[in-house]
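Sequence in, structure out. First:
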Amino acid sequence: MAIDTGELPIIDLDGYLNPKTTSDKERVITEVRDACQKYGFFQITGHGIPLSAQQGLIRGLGNLFHQSEEKKAKLSFLKNPGRRGYEASGVGGLRAGDALHDSKEAFYIGREDPVLEPPGFYGPNVWPSLPEEDFRDPIWEYYQGTTVLGRIIWAILLQGLGYSADLLDVFAKRPIVQMKMIRYPPSSLTKEGQFGVGAHTDFGGVTVLLQQPAKAGLEVQDSETKEWFPVPSIEDVLVINCGDMIQKWSGGAYKSAKHRVINKADSERFSCATFWHGDADATNPFNADDADKDNIGQLLFKRFKSQFSLPKEVQDQQQSVVAHPNESGIPQQVKVQ
């Protein structure tokens, strides 16, 4: 059942994944629907991601981010047409209303496809020169787990709106699933007025967030009072939220809430967000008559263009590919050397 913490509910997904009665699945669907309508956020247990996989991820992030700046810079996502790899602190664009750039550093992976498909939503990942057991293996295990979980959350959200979970087959045959691993520096190393991540909403579909246990930092804004409330960081509890695309597609039934991160502890903090969107060429599956015909790829590109400091020539090239795929409707494939 949902636990009323006075803030975000904690929902046990086991009733949906392993129902013991005919009403168990419906109860979870209702709890998720209510949380997304009220908050746009909720927390989950019984999600099927082993604790060992979560712990392996955190260890892997330490191994990655504790490398030298020189080694990390060689993996820069700005050098990669698929936007995979390392993002140094302060590289991202400055958000409206923020006095300073985010203090975080990050690393991105996605689906492991053998060839790059412009504008970069599908393609091979960038991996650091670390023993596979120290990074790639645990990170990929966790990525695969959250890829499965993200689809389950989408199925629950669809049923909460009265649709069949089979609707996923319409817009998620080959979904864009991106994972962002983040390190926040100790509070003593951040400047006054600097956020780990400034106030924002997520762009797209479902976000699955792991916070390092006992190192809270996430805050969610109440859409009515505009007050910020903290989200506790509890071992084996994941945080789920809806992005702007879900709010739009659902006609506002589900909220996309503003959130931010402030690391108040004088020690580093890790987190990991998996963003589960849908097919690059998919449009609103709930409303074929939606006047906004932007597909997921176009919406995602617009967000990247404003958020990341990509060179203008790269932006122009990628915008052309998003707007004008080849005649088959699928972007041309390019082998990565």
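Second:
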Amino acid sequence: MSYFDVHTFSRNVSPGDWYYFREGLYGAAIRIHLFTTIPAGLMMLLQFVPKLRARALDLHRINGYTVIALMSIGNVTALLVMRRSFGGDIAVQSAVVTLAVASQIAMYQAWRNAKMHRIGQHRMWAMRAMIWMACIVSTRVVMPIAVMSLSAMDNYFFVKSCHELDFIQRQGKTIFSDGSMRPVAELYPECGSDTSTEEKWVAVKGKFDLSRPDQVGAALNLTFGMGLWLCFCLHAAALEVYFDRRSMSRSAKSAKNSLTVQGSEFTPENNKKAA
């Protein structure tokens, strides 16, 4: 919930992201994205409370329509900001597009099956939408592990603009309280002393070093797209395994009940009646 506050959000985004998100189209889009997806994520959990479905079906429906509306807006704004989110490389953009399209299809299928009174399929598609989108949370768990692994190898780099690096260095003491901040020209001679002129790009090492927010930002940029793809695939696979196991369990119970009924037809009492 702290991300609803702009100042808190500016201090907690990946170093360099706030350079793009502080104003303009990207700034408006990221704010709308947060104001829609966070409430939608919390409201989505209510859809799976059995007592709410049983005792307040109208509330369940209204809440479902609200979730679909908020998440649809959230998906559109995610597509708008993906070019600047965590570096916005091809891995990030392809993962965001896949997740947005997949979740939108899942929500449509959930709504469609509910309208057709196919409740089993409705629940399955609703679960797919929720579990797929929950990979955003899992990605935040995977990223620190990936960043530490990447830092240990010490040979991964991410390309950043000199303008962004200058902004990171000037904002560094706000984001990280420790470590000294040095001019960009000293850290990256290719940028030169005047970063306000033409756009220049340099390779930044990805490493978890709190005295170097530029390197921390590069490490996060390198791992976000990978983490999002990995978690999306794991969530999708795990859910389908769950559905398969659940289907097998129901089939086994149905077969057992069928055998029990058939067996009861051949008891001695029934044989005497038949005679």
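Remark: The longest strand covers residues 157-161.
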